Amino acid sequence: MNTEKVTARRLTAEEISSLGVQDRIFVSAGTESLPLDCYAPAFLTEPGKNFEGGSFAAKTVFGEEVHALPDDAEDAGIWVADKAGQEIEVLQSAGVLLNLALFVPDGNKESLEALYSAARDAFGAGVVQRWSEEVVAVPDVKVDLYEEPARARKNANNQNRDRRALDIYPTRVRFLEPSEGWKFVVEPHKEIVDDTPTI
Description:
This protein is an alpha+beta fold. It contains three helices and ten strands. The strands form three sheets. A four-stranded antiparallel sheet has the order 2-3-4-5, with no helix packed on it. The termini are far apart.
């Protein structure tokens, strides 16, 4: 675990209420599944003045949402950097986790092994790992991806359609999620022809 010592002080509820979403703070790095006795850099999910009593919600730089009770002595609370404060352990980002889906034209076992070996050589054998592997033959075609309201009226025209992505491979669609209240519509790719008269 990569941590660094930061001098900080714990804030009261009144002090937190004057913070905005751009102010850098520190909150507990522990989660329900992973208890950690240190802190993580974070930002409030909304301005402090919008919280009325109870807990404050913050999102860490690692994407975890944390609820803090600043006036509860048993809670980790919310901290801010202050040279006159005390030292706390702050969890640092040690790297980036990439979930990759690779399309290899004319891919075979030898080319996939060569790709894997090259990645291990570049980043280190202990860094690059294959968690799951699925080899699927993919037609070399592209599709257009649209979003439509999930509860659209029948016989409605395509006015309520939003373009999400054009000219992408079908396998990539599997790794995307529609916006809340919307559904995906996948259609064969059509070239956009601009017939606007030009002078």
